[in-house]
Amino acid sequence: MKSAPLRGCQGSPFVELMAPSPAVSKELEGDWEGTLAMGGGKGLQVLVSFKNQPDGIVQATWGGEGSGVPINDVRQAGQRVEFGLKVAHSSFQGMLKKEGTVLDGQFTHEGAPATPLTLRRKKRAGRAPPRGTSGRDLLPKTV
């Protein structure tokens, strides 16, 4: 694992950087949402995002769109998907269903029993522009 200088902090002047994870399949790329069961019958709303980058790695987050906790160590082998949340001492192991809309698995948090977690592909707001056009092409024309 690489390290980078950290300025303005006491202690070690270096912080460990997470190793990049290889790009994921088109079926897995995108936003996934679900509810993680918590004690007392309450659930925690979860949003997991996988976005492939031009350099062949995936940027993955747990939390909000465009922000959230970085997901590390993303691994995909066929339909099997695994990832970790190093900062939360947690991990997920699951299977992407054939239709590509459900990711069903187990979430584990340091020392606690595994909890079932089903993530469903988040529906995009509105429609995507037709192939070969940009979103601007769909705006009303002004005179």
Number of domains: 1
> Low-confidence parts lasting 5 or more residues at pLDDT below 50?
126-143
C-alpha termini separation: 57 Å
Indicate the CATH architecture.
Beta Barrel
Q: Helix count?
A: 0
- Strand content is over 45%
What portion of residues is helical?
under 10%
Structural class determined from secondary elements: mainly beta
CATH topology-level fold name: Lipocalin
CA-based shape: globular
Mean pLDDT: 79
Q: Would you report the number of β strands?
A: 12
Describe the protein in words.
With 143 residues, the chain is mainly β. 0% of the residues lie in helices and 48% in strands. A hairpin with a 4-residue loop joins β9 (80-85) and β10 (90-96).
Summarize the helices and strands and which ones pair or pack.
Blueprint: E1 3-5, E2 14-16, E3 21-22, E4 30-37, E5 43-52, E6 57-62, E7 69-70, E8 72-77, E9 80-85, E10 90-96, E11 102-109, E12 115-121
In summary, what is this structure?
This protein is mainly β.
Question: Which labels suit this protein?
Answer:
143 residues, Lipocalin, ten-stranded antiparallel sheet, 48% strand, disordered C terminus
